[in-house]
UniProtKB/TrEMBL annotation:
Keywords: Membrane, Transmembrane, Transmembrane helix
The species this protein was found in: Arsenicicoccus piscis
Residues that span the membrane, as ranges: 6-29, 65-85, 105-127
Protein name: DUF4345 domain-containing protein
Amino acid sequence: MTLLLQIVVVAVLGAAAMGLGSPLVSFVFRRIDRRERAEGVDRPSILAAGVMLRGGTWIGVLERLAIYAGILAGFGEVIAVTLAVKALARYPELRATSSATAERFIIGTFVSVLFAAGCAGLALWLLSLVAGAT
């Protein structure tokens, strides 16, 4: 029964990390855009800058999966590796675009990584509770 509970914890929080990260990132972008409009800031919307970074949603899902799995496996260095690969792959696109696109990349990456790490931390805590209960 304990093994089944551990599998459920890992699967549910992994699915949450991958599936809920994109709506969370979009929510943050909308909040930033709304605040800037309210303050009278006249520059391109961060949400609209997404057209310049194709595949961002799928890259974010894979990024969160890698970080979640890496932390659970005890390989926290996966965060640095994932961010380095992502930054190097996106560098040519970011260099050739507006500052709104670069801001979207940085903000989206931070929100995504923090959410995945938070889900992994919660999973580790719950797994420790399950292990302690036996």
